[in-house]
Amino acid sequence: MTEQRTPWTEEQVRALAPDASSLAAARKLAGRWRECGTADNAVWGLCQGSGAKPYQAIVDLDGPAYKCSCPSRKFPCKHTLSLLLSWSSGQVPVLRAPADFAAEWLAGRAVKAAPAPKAKAVPSQATVEQRRTRVAAGLTELEVWLTDQIRTGLAQTDRSFAAYESIAARMVDAQAPRIAEALRRLPAAVVTTEHWPELLLREYARLHLLVLAHRRLDALPEPLQAGIRTHIGYPTPAESVLTEPAVRDHWLVLGMRASEEERLHTRRTWLRGRTSGRWALLIEHSFATPNFTGEVPAPGHEVDADLHYYPGAASLRAHWGTRHGVPEPFTTIPAVGGTTIDAALDAYADALSRDPWLRSWPALLADVVPVLDDTGWQLVAADGTALPLPAGVHPWRLIAVAGGHPVTVCGEWRADGFDPISVFSAGEVSDLETEFPTETTATPALAELVSVALLGTARRSADNIAVDSAVATAVPQHAGEPATRLLHTAALQDLYLRGGQLPRTASKPQPAVDDPRPLLPRPAADRLSRLLAAKSPFLPEWFAAATPFDFRLPDVLCVQALAAASDTSLRAPLLRLAGRRGRWLAAHNPAWAKLVDEFPSDTSTSLSDVSTDHPVPETGGADAGTPAAHDVWLFGTAGERKDWFARTRRADPAAALAVLTAAWPKESGPVKAELLALLEDGLSRADEDLLERALDDRRGDVRRTATTLLNKLPDAAFGARMATLVASWIRVDDDGTVEVTVPAEVDAQARRDGITDGTDQPKMRWDTPDSTIKTLHQTIAATPLGAWAPIVHATGDTTATTALSLSLPPRYAKAIVDGWVDGTLAQRDTAWARALFAHATPTEQAVLRRRELFTLLDTADRIDHVLDLDAHQLNELHAILPGLDHPWPEPVAAHVLRLLSERARTTARQPHAGAGVYTDRALLTAASVHLPIDLAERITAMADTTEDPAWQQAFHRLAHDLTDRATMLEELR
Predict the structure, then answer these.
(1) Second label for 921, Cα 20 to 30 Å away, from 386, 515, 573, 643?
(2) Number of folded domains in the chain?
């Protein structure tokens, strides 16, 4: 028996999915597997589908190859993906031998994979010479085309896609496919790059040099010959590579990137030998789908194995040979082979001297700090030496992981800078997810050559161009016509510049302060990343469950968190999770700088830190018991001050009020209204004096905040003033008829209280040119509900019922009822909420307003109302269910399941009755978010007894969602 395989990572499984829908469907099959197992190179299992017989899924890990008994035409299907996801998460047991159904298929594959040995195909000498002749002829035409471009001038030549496609097609005919690929990339680069003339000159010179090298191929050393043939596109069979000497080492997987071009997916993996320090590059291709093999370990793992290098002067690409062990995580990277900036530049120059057509060379830089300054992005070493990053690279994930501290970075050194691929910190490798940049920066040393090429040698002489002396000496005196000499000079000057790069110098930033909070567990962190990417409705539950633990995010996730914080509903918990590293990162990115003030403070302040026994300094700060608390209030950012004040308000409302009262005269800006709004926590009559002062503030947001809070103090003088106004404007006759008389203009006191004609108020839910309607609405919304008893001639709990039975004038009816609703929501009055909820049908109140009233009802009333709704009142059910507690109470959950089961039976009996799954998708979605997670088994049983296939699938999906939520919560513990 061969050694047991290490499970693939979830990232490797995701890469196999033919599309996003297959992966999503695969996740919903979790929990439906049985008789699963893995042994040697196989994983298998049975998945219960819609039929009586379960689907048989098998994976041969050596291919990989897949077999599933389902009728799906996708490859791999959702069942296979789900099986691999289960294996990846450790839910598939290791067994001694495959199940019978798996063993039979695997044995058949083994027979097919072992054909009779045959002699190795070796092309005849005539075939080799014929190909070389065709290539030589094609390169001669290419040389003519290149010199024509330079002679005519880059500004005058045809740079269309069709022009490049024409010469590229000729290279394909000449059996030089790698040159054709390079030519086909040029038109896209021209239209996306500002400095396109320099880019074209560099590429034309590189191709010119390749043409010259092919003409002298026999006179060159064999390793260089092999490299030239590779750059042109001569085939190198894998069988011949495996005959090259094996290089055994413990290979560290330091980086991995996948790309796609014209449906051809390519994955590059960078390896480095632990003992030798030698680099290797594995390249895999997959057409149409990123269906790469699982034989390449994930970044962060090492494996004892043989590698066979492709022949070449600066050999980098390799092929897997024999493995001598299983992949294992590594936590250290040795410095063997050089990990300094100078070593990286020397290695690149050496590789370039051996193979002038290299576009990049890998490098490992230890103890460098990523920096963004006036000159752009750089990596700075301890001694101040720095390497620039390409213009199109913005490695915010790298900045987040480093936080101003030294890290180890794996990347590629190229002509325009160092392109980071991954970062190693705290024993982990993190992918930086950067893309190959398309931007370029101008090279001053090439400017004169570019100028001549742009105009053309037919218009401007190429003689006496200023180039480096070493280049001028190397250019042959008789290099042909001017266009040829220019290409030759440009090729040598470009090589001279690339190989002779010197490091810069730069200063390092102030590093981020360490966050002492516990790190979010890795499974939970991966889960959060997926939830944010999908904008999952499970996010509120995840945040609620994570809050008590006060975790901090892994640094690499801070970028995703700050980007997702643009959603204001997620901002507060995300910024709390990002913590100190997130604040530091936001301060360095102009796009996130506005979030800095919203980060909560992490300064611990106890109740004893804020004491009313100490005088409040005239500077507007509180003489808190500790210097830290005092400094946060006096000198902290707006976000830190608000967080400090909020915590103080919760601990001691009187002390917080004293602090804000003393600071009030000197507070200014938007923070003034935000601090005032925090008085809502523990609001009482003691706050009335400060709120009354705020009514005279110059800022409209401060005045509006004050009126909002005063409206929540029914016994305050503000409420009495509102009640007086209402009593003077509204009269109720004995027969229940309401007469309303609202003045066109209100007095100064009413304007001070925020009662206006509505012109300076936020946009209302409805609009009208009648200013008296707006004035009446504002006043009623601010009036204490208890003040209506004498106005409507009612007593006690009958006030709301009596008010709603009155005959309201059509002109003011909506303003009066809306005012009552706003007042009820502000004052949290259960009796009025019950009456308004019963009085107003869903068509009379907006869905959200009705839901807010519903949340004010007693729990028993809310449950009773839901239980009274049947399958014919689903619109009402959808509207109010979000107003219930999470998760739904057991009676509500049971009622919703009964309704869904009833709808499923109706669909099975009457397929065209309009009771399909699509009609109830909103209720199913709400159920997946709010049902208790322990109902998964019950819902699975419902699925098994459901006759309609669509409903059966919906129930299985619902059960999976509940199981997924349970796993989500378990990951946090």
Answers:
(1) 573
(2) 7
Same domain, 850 and 874: no
Q: Is 199 exposed, middle or buried (0-12, 13-18, 19+ CB in 10 A)?
A: middle
Which residues constitute the domain of residue 158? 128-182+194-229+443-492
For residues 557 and 567, membership in a common domain is answered with yes
Residues 922-945 pLDDT 10s: 888 899 999 999 999 899 889 888
The list of the chain residues with pLDDT below 50 reads 1-2, 116-119, 603-627, 760-763, 842-843
Q: Which of 60, 89, 61, 80 is nearest to 17 (CA)?
A: 80
Dump pLDDT digits (tens) for 495-539: 998 888 888 888 888 899 999 999 999 889 999 999 999 999 999
Residues with Cβ < 8 Å from 128, sequence gap 6 or more?
Answer: none
**Residue 433: left if φ>0, alpha if ψ -120 to 50, beta else—which one?**
left
Tell me, what DSSP letter sits at residue 261? E
- What's the CA gap between 713 and 666, in Å, rounded? 26
Tokens 């000496």 belong to 473
Instruction: Render pLDDT for 157-178 as a digit per residue (tens, 0 to 9).
Output: 888 899 999 999 999 999 999 9
Identify whether 150 is part of a domain: yes
As a whole number of angstroms, the distance between CA 39 and CA 402 comes to 41
Mark whether 723 and 842 lie in a shared domain: yes
Shared domain check, 222 and 265: no
d(CA 461, CA 476): 17
8 Å CB contact between 247 and 258: no
What single DSSP character describes residue 97? S
In this predicted structure, what is the pLDDT of residue 253?
95
Alpha helices in 652-682 (DSSP H): 653-663, 670-677
Question: ω before 887 within 30° of 0 (cis)?
Answer: yes
Q: What is the 3-state secondary structure (H, E, C) of 866-906?
A: HHCCCHHHHHHHHHHHHHCCCCCCHHHHHHHHHHHHHHHHH
Residues 895, 876 share a domain: yes
Tell which of 598, 630, 651 closes a domain: 598
d(CA 729, CA 737): 14
| Whether 417 and 469 share a structural domain | no
The size of the chain, in residues, is: 973
Q: What is the pLDDT of residue 110?
A: 75
What pLDDT, on a 0 to 100 scale, did the predictor assign at position 905?
A: 86
Residue 246, in any domain of the structure: yes
In a shared domain, residues 892 and 809: no
Going from the C-alpha of 323 to that of each of 60, 63, 110, 267, 791, the distances in angstroms are 18, 16, 20, 20, 90
User: What are the tokens at 810?
Assistant: 């059509």
Which residues face 302 on adjacent strands? 252, 328
The bridge status of strand 385-388 relative to strand 376-380 is antiparallel
> At what angle are helices 949-970 and 890-909 packed, to 10 degrees?
150
- From the number of C-beta atoms within 10 Å of its C-beta (0-12, 13-18, 19+), residue 726 rates as buried
Sheet strands side by side (includes 65-68): 33-39, 42-47, 55-60, 65-68
- DSSP secondary-structure letter at 924? H
Domain shared by 212 and 316, yes or no? no
Angle between helices 890-909 and 921-930 (to 10 degrees): 150
Residue 616 lies in a domain: no
> In DSSP terms, which residues pair with 412 in a beta bridge?
362, 419
Cβ–Cβ under 8 Å, residues 812 and 777: no
Residue 438 in any domain: the answer is no
The candidate with the shortest Cα–Cα distance to 841, out of 876, 892, 878, 802, is 876
- Domain end among 598, 615, 635: 598
Question: How many angstroms separate the CA atoms of 590 and 573, rounded?
Answer: 21
**pTM of structure:** 0.75
Inter-residue contact 5 to 301 (CB < 8 Å)? no
